[in-house]
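Work Package 3 (structural annotation) set out to generate three-dimensional models for the target panel prioritized at the project kickoff. During this period the team completed the workflow that converts sequence records into discrete structure tokens, so that structures can be stored uniformly alongside our sequence database. As a representative example, we reproduce one entry of 841 residues exactly as it appears in the project archive.
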Amino acid sequence: MACVCRILYVLFLAFFCNNLGVSSYILRAGEPPVTPNRTLFSAGGEFALGFFRPGNSSSSPSFLGIWYTPLNSTVIWVANRESPLPHHDSEPLFKLSNDGNLQLLDGRRNIIWSTNISGAGLARNPVEAYLQTNGNLILKQGDSQVWESFDDAGGNTLMPGMKLKVNTKTKTQNIIRSWTSLHDPRPGKFSWGMDPKGSPQFFIWKENSPYYRSNLYQDGFTKSMHFSKLGHTTTYSFAAENDEVYFRYFCDNPLIQMRFVLTPDGYIEAMVRKTKSDQWRIPWKVPRNPCEFYARCGSFGSCEKIGFSSHSICRCLEGFKPKSQREWENGNYSSGCERKREFRCHSKDDKFKKLEKMKWPDFSVSLGNMAFGECEAKCYSNCSCTAFAYANISERHPANCLNWFGDLVDLTYNYSVGVNAFGQDLYVRVHSSELDNGSSGNGHSDHYLVAKIVAPVSGFFLVCVLVYILKRKCFKSKADWLCKRSAVDNSMSTSPLVGNDEIELLQFSLQRIIDATNNFDTTNKLGEGGFGPVYKGFLSEFGMVAIKRLSKRSSQGLEEFMNELKLIAKLQHTNLVSLLGCCTEDEEKILIYEYLPKRSLDKFLFDPLEKHHLDWSTRAQIIEGIAQGILYLHKYSRLKVIHRDLKASNILLCETMKPKISDFGMARIFGLDQTQAETNHVVGTYGYIPPEYVLRGQFSEKSDVFSFGVLLLEIVSGQKNSEFFHQTHLSDTLLGWAWVNWKEGRPLEFVDSAIRESCDSLKVIRCIEVGLLCVQTIPTDRPTMSNVVRLLCTDHATPIPPLKEPAFVASHSNANVSTSHREVSGSYSQNEITISVLESR
């Protein structure tokens, strides 16, 4: 028996070596090429070069790429991103040709991709291709390196030691391009590279327009970050050498692998893993908040993130005002700011205002090394100079003078994110009247210094008195105890969460709310639900906000209001709406949220005139965002939360059409080990409620899964479940129509006609299958949200469990819900009624 095992083992090794890979890391002309059955490995076996199919699906096109050998789904470079090989082509090959170029050939031996280096010189001298231990594929002619994959545009990954660079003379640069999706290597909308102007900063571009910009660094800047949990230090550096400006990084622990990935939705993610692990961790990513988006606040406008929330404020720099007050009140800051008072050049009218902790603006001009006074004088002597900065990195690197001319763009206050992790001083040219006591940014008068001391002390005592008075009012009702500290005039709480249940929220007076909404003017009304109306308003602390006023006639009373107040204040996630403040004066119960200008998903999805804004990539982004938000509620938040009212009208959309889950009035907190609860007070919205909840009053995480499944199928089909009608009468419900189409092998007929021709058919079918899995009749047949996210993100790599006929296939009447509880008719009405009292059976 042992002999037979040895023979089988030897035969297996022989088969593996001959058919699955080549041990050599060198590729030479005339030697066996790389084929679907032969792979090139790096010297240490850490990386492989070969053919792969995204999602390991036989129906997917094939690509030539480089990947980590333990994780064949972790691809770092792809040769033929723009020219995928058809799935039926089983005989492509990759070789080093006789002219010294690397070539990818299809089954008919047409050249699909090549290094395209002039072959005249290469043909006379031997050339070899090496797959290095760092994942870089290089072409060498003798001791000269003539090409490398690290400089090619085939990757979405920045590897350790790899330079992100630009040549200041030729303006050539290596660009990292995102994939179209997580499992589609074709070039996506986003690219990442150094500033082509030669400034030491990098950009993310979205379709050639700036989307994100790093801080402005100086030559020789180096920063180390220690990650204690994984036990390694990563060193980042910017440098300028031989006409090149570049950024690169190194990891000091050989047992740790690290990479930077530009994701399909425009984020740079730092991914780290131990070599024996199959899981990548993401310690940070950018952009992380709205202030990171390029020029968010326009020219001379500065963005500031509020506490730990996802909300931000745009403010004009001191001495400037909005160009269009109306646009700023409507949340559109792109028009920027202008000077309050013009100054006369070379007179006493213009001074420099010192702004601290700033992300320096774009379009800087370096004037070289000089003293601070000389740098200031250089800017002052030029009437076009708007601002200057003085960079003093270290003793090894002399100070550098920077000037800015024209508008100041992409400013951020209190800048501290990721590898940037610092803000610096910026000196902005303003009219002297904008400075305190007419002093410049460099000094202050004695009177001003006295004022700086006296004013805070006086203010402190005044605040103490007001806090004492307001504290007594703050605890006068059952709701007010939540407000640990009220706002004084226009001041704000600095920490959104304190302790376990003590929540700091900015509390507003009723008069402030009345002023913000123009006395609840109907022209400011955004919509209305079972709780009451929502208005658009303007508050100086936040800009445009959404103000939710609980109707006195609403069945959602103080309990629901308090529930929402406690829940949202403790939840922080990019796919959840941010709660900014509250008002409980004169029996009013009012919540203030971040304003999302695109409003709710149903306004687009069910409106035939608006749904063209929802192409397939946007819908896929919305589906994934909603799933991530629910997963956070169920598993990763401080509380285990069951939403209980997921529907299209409760999904709000930001400027970039990313979704945020709203309306937590019906939500319930579960214990960490709790799986199910029962109630005689059934709440929710017709069309989204699972059968066990309607019939027995039972709710759990699987209730939200059911609602998500309905919502997913609505997004794919563009039809509302509660108002579905199909002329063939094959089914009375949207769920039934999805089931019939899937069961009969024509799932694409279920897809919204607005996207049917342009969508990714494989991904749409996967979404339909996941939706049907979520709306299974028996809760235990439904997946958890963790599994939902995994199924949606892995395409066909993870099989779908066997599907059964979903709930409510025959008719909505199966739910035994009276039609009196139907939503108000009109497929995209602003009024959607929530069931708030249904006796369970």
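The chain has a mean pLDDT of 77.
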